[in-house]
């Protein structure tokens, strides 16, 4: 059977990473209310949300279609830092991360019409002490309101502020590519290119 893969994410970082992996896919984004129980912690949050996003697609999937969904949080001092609500929230997040080590947790889920499989990854990231001016400059210039923890490691703040990474770099960007490859491995030779391959 030839399979078709959808990426159920609007993240340009995840799109680019999946392209770099040479996996043929199309984007199909479904709006999901990312609400979870406050009893969940760490990886349990991202696992739940990645699966929740996948479930939103399952009713639309044909037997030969799969959807890849993902979720990323910054876990720091027992709290999940998602996307900041505004610039004030972003400043608060970066101040809390300054001079400390936090965890970036991502889960990726592969869903068919009837089943789901999920993997996750955790990376430790350490920031040097950031000045108030540096934080304000980054937020004003790069507008990281669409990023968990209010920063993108591939941007200026990562180049000048991160002193150490322990684990997967792409996990911090938003898609743990090694774990993603493991999920997709059984299907890689069976994916059909949505543009150039119309074979069944």
How would you characterize the largest beta sheet?
Answer: 7 strands, mixed
Question: How many separate structural domains?
Answer: 1
- CATH names the topology as Maf protein
Helix content: 25-40%
**How far is the first residue's CA from the last residue's CA?**
7 Å
Order of helices and strands: EHEHEEHEEHHEHH
CATH architecture: Alpha-Beta Complex
Question: What is the average of the pLDDT values?
Answer: 94
**What's the count of strands?**
7
Query: Structural class of the secondary elements?
Result: alpha/beta
Shape summary: elongated
Task: Explain the overall architecture.
- Helices cover 33% and strands 24% of the residues.
- The protein has 200 residues and is an alpha/beta fold.
- Strands 1, 2, 3, 4, 5, 6 and 7 form a seven-stranded mixed beta sheet that branches.
- Residues 195-200 have low confidence and may be disordered.
